[in-house]
Amino acid sequence: MLQLALFVLGAHAAPTVTLRNGVQMPMVAAGSWQYNSSAAYDSVTAALKAGFTMIDTALDYNNQDGVGRAIAESQVPREKIFVETKVPGCGMDPSMLNLFKCQEGTKKNLEKDLQLLNLSYVDLVIVHFPPIASMITRSCNSWSGGCQMVRAQWKAMEEFYKEGKARAIGVSNYCPSCFDCLKSATIQPMVNQVQFHLGMGTDPNSFVSYHKAHNIQLQAYSVLGNSLDHHASSEIVSGNLTVSIGKAHNKSSVQVALKWVVSQGIPAVTKSSNLEHLQQDLDLWSWSFTAQEQQALDTHSSPGGSPSFACNSLSASEVLV
């Protein structure tokens, strides 16, 4: 019971956003990218102890057995943990290059996901990226068979959802052109996980406006910048703006950057195996930016970035309907 008590004493519980189907998703998730199974186990264990209620993983991370074991051993009731996972977009595996194999391969990956996590359901599963060819053409609907591939994979996602094996379904790194392919889908994507961080502005490439108009919840990865070299941006971690605002509130620059993301109404995925840092990552709602600080952060223009590495140069505003 002592272990359970430690979890209950987590310092701050993140608020939630409501997805289009009514599911409540926490505003902050503990990520597990780049961790092996052992490190993922330690990180998720620490995150749950710190008070996190959402865990983010993916089939491609090859660490889900560790994530699942940490969840099982946490003594936290399963319904109190929001588990998000991802399955690869079609085409990464050459065997999934045709429509039938794309759909069937996605079904197998979804079941494999559950098996590795040792769970009967997940709270959210998303397609990790658009079909591989879309990343070459920078669009889902500008190449022969593009939309058909998107629809084939999404059909498998819909079936998984209808079977009650996921409480919500979504995508990651999807562009407006990809959503165009799903206009006739029975179930629309509920979440799109994209890069979003301080320095990109409040509506980069009109992505935020587009998703609000279509009732798709954005979720942010690479919240400290530099998704390509996999290191936090020095501009965010040690820049004058974040450091000075942090000092004014007795908070860290990382907390300033995270708070700015969630202040836009966009849930954030963060990552650490350090208990103290994890607790700090949840302490985002006990304090507030001044109006001047908020404006300075909103208009800050470095480091830059694009919401999706798979999108074309057209801004979402050009297809906003």
From TrEMBL:
<dbReference type="InterPro" id="IPR018170">
    <property type="entry name" value="Aldo/ket_reductase_CS"/>
</dbReference>
<dbReference type="Pfam" id="PF00248">
    <property type="entry name" value="Aldo_ket_red"/>
</dbReference>
<comment type="similarity">
    <text>Belongs to the aldo/keto reductase family.</text>
</comment>
<protein>
    <recommendedName>
        <fullName>NADP-dependent oxidoreductase domain-containing protein</fullName>
    </recommendedName>
</protein>
<keyword id="KW-0560">Oxidoreductase</keyword>
<dbReference type="InterPro" id="IPR023210">
    <property type="entry name" value="NADP_OxRdtase_dom"/>
</dbReference>
<feature type="binding site">
    <location>
        <position position="128"/>
    </location>
    <ligand>
        <name>substrate</name>
    </ligand>
</feature>
<dbReference type="GO" id="GO:0016616">
    <property type="term" value="F:oxidoreductase activity, acting on the CH-OH group of donors, NAD or NADP as acceptor"/>
</dbReference>
<feature type="active site" description="Proton donor">
    <location>
        <position position="61"/>
    </location>
</feature>
<keyword id="KW-0521">NADP</keyword>
<feature type="domain" description="NADP-dependent oxidoreductase">
    <location>
        <begin position="31"/>
        <end position="300"/>
    </location>
</feature>
<dbReference type="InterPro" id="IPR020471">
    <property type="entry name" value="AKR"/>
</dbReference>
<dbReference type="InterPro" id="IPR036812">
    <property type="entry name" value="NAD(P)_OxRdtase_dom_sf"/>
</dbReference>
<feature type="site" description="Lowers pKa of active site Tyr">
    <location>
        <position position="86"/>
    </location>
</feature>
